[in-house]
């Protein structure tokens, strides 16, 4: 069984998720934006072994601590999609702009593309490329537990911003309707900020994508 724990980090209260395979206790960490000590304390409390970092996209609040954590624990960095390379390159400037600790540059061990899979222990998650918020944004879908880790594509009652460089509103709507909705109304998603919701609930009530 795949398990997860969501830990809000950074002043932006970004939802970093620790996901692990119950059978093996191997774990991945999705979007370690900061507060490494807090995250490692949770990992220790859970009794799991971190094996990889998975990134949905490369904005500072999602990727800020990636380089330091990868170096500290010798972890591979998986994702995002190559189209977010320019955001990775800009992490030092992003950290200065938003008052974050200096972000260490990094090179992903493996880029992700639409239709790829990632594995932790005995558990496999599907990767969907969902551009719009950033051009290289990806989503991790765990159909075995009806969960999706969607970063900043969709929120409870809202959608991701598209006013950043290379953001695209129509692309974001297409990503939601063509890539997320087919995962099923019953799927609960863990957004990059704020509470969980389900795709069905958002289809019915989210003013940005209602009825799509």
From TrEMBL:
Q: Name one Pfam family in it.
A: Lactamase_B
Q: Which InterPro entries match?
A: MBL_Glyoxalase_II (IPR051453), Metallo-B-lactamas (IPR001279), RibonucZ/Hydroxyglut_hydro (IPR036866)
Instruction: Write down the required cofactor(s).
Output: Zn(2+)
Please list the GO terms describing molecular function: hydrolase activity; metal ion binding
For this UniProt record, give its keywords in alphabetical order, as a comma-separated list.
Hydrolase, Metal-binding, Zinc
Location of the region described as Disordered in the Swiss-Prot/TrEMBL record: 191-212
Q: Which domain of life is it from?
A: Bacteria
Start and end of every Metallo-beta-lactamase domain? 13-193
What protein name does the entry list? MBL fold metallo-hydrolase
According to its UniProt entry, this protein's organism is Simplicispira hankyongi
Q: What is the lineage of its organism?
A: Bacteria, Pseudomonadati, Pseudomonadota, Betaproteobacteria, Burkholderiales
